[in-house]
């Protein structure tokens, strides 16, 4: 699908889902993980993640040895260095993608919508709870900004809400107009580039645990360390919290990108998809820009919740590309329904997670996203993204995570912990507030601001 310029957000009336199929079509539209697939992705401890998949024919193999929670990109869970062959294979398989029966799905959703009492039963009116909340705006201590005018808000549809609830993910076309997105992208790119060294240091911290990253003073330093100290592939560069002051900038100024990330427009999407009720508040958990330069490897199967020290199911990530994507660009791929299945069995230990192939997840992705579009996934939804082909430009994406106020802080390790230790990949994000919030208490902290209502 080609991206067209549009002056205003484009509401869509029904979800547009393109599912990818395995090479051999199964009898039903469900694509399940096949444990013995020769080309399989891994949700792993760095053991087998090198094997990459054609979408829809994948194994999720988990952390072996030590039972560590799995992250998205290495540090004992990343892939091994490999050739570009997998990219070609991926492209070939991706080209087999065929659309889901969109009309059938839309009909099903419409029929269901008629039976469901939803807080937002119309695509043009804000949900009742949101309207009530609007009246209270300004009095809630919310840091949400109106940089994107509320009059142009793009309410989520019942179809999107249902799909998010059922599958654990959905696509939202035209959350921002191209013009709105362009202003945000300029600032995000500026901030991301200013923090390049930080992103490389973080990659070293994740892929070479224990390395003193303060000794790294240039990108070349980082590349040398990565070359010599690990045989894991680099899946992406992750720049944290572009709405918070740059820790390496002594001025401590708030970045110009902050007002976009803190926007009520985006937070409202989270509020609606999390099925928030009157009185609920959305907190911003973290923002990241994920850069995947050409030739970078896959982002491994993971759930964001596994990296978050919060006890909640009300957690959502919005993922927005910072340029128009096409079929070959690395976008997110989701294991539908995994959000209802995944967290509970692995709350205390990862034992048994080494092979999730029997769990029957359907693997789905969307038609290429344009500037201003977003996908949303639940904190427990398993997802990955493929390698970025050598012949494509770097893929940049903004990922913003929110949770409903009231979620309690979990322990971050030790026998006394309520759950297995969250993966440390995002520690650079939560270390700013974790010591200020007691375990078991609601995570309320200036670093986790209310942004909606
Ligand atoms: O962009 C990617 O490859 C990974 C992003 C991701 O996992 C997320 O936003 O939750
Ligand atoms: Fe993720």
UniProtKB/TrEMBL annotation:
<protein>
    <submittedName>
        <fullName>Predicted protein</fullName>
    </submittedName>
</protein>
<feature type="region of interest" description="Disordered">
    <location>
        <begin position="113"/>
        <end position="153"/>
    </location>
</feature>
<dbReference type="InterPro" id="IPR008775">
    <property type="entry name" value="Phytyl_CoA_dOase-like"/>
</dbReference>
<feature type="region of interest" description="Disordered">
    <location>
        <begin position="1"/>
        <end position="90"/>
    </location>
</feature>
<feature type="compositionally biased region" description="Gly residues">
    <location>
        <begin position="64"/>
        <end position="77"/>
    </location>
</feature>
<feature type="compositionally biased region" description="Low complexity">
    <location>
        <begin position="118"/>
        <end position="127"/>
    </location>
</feature>
<feature type="compositionally biased region" description="Low complexity">
    <location>
        <begin position="14"/>
        <end position="43"/>
    </location>
</feature>
<dbReference type="Pfam" id="PF05721">
    <property type="entry name" value="PhyH"/>
</dbReference>
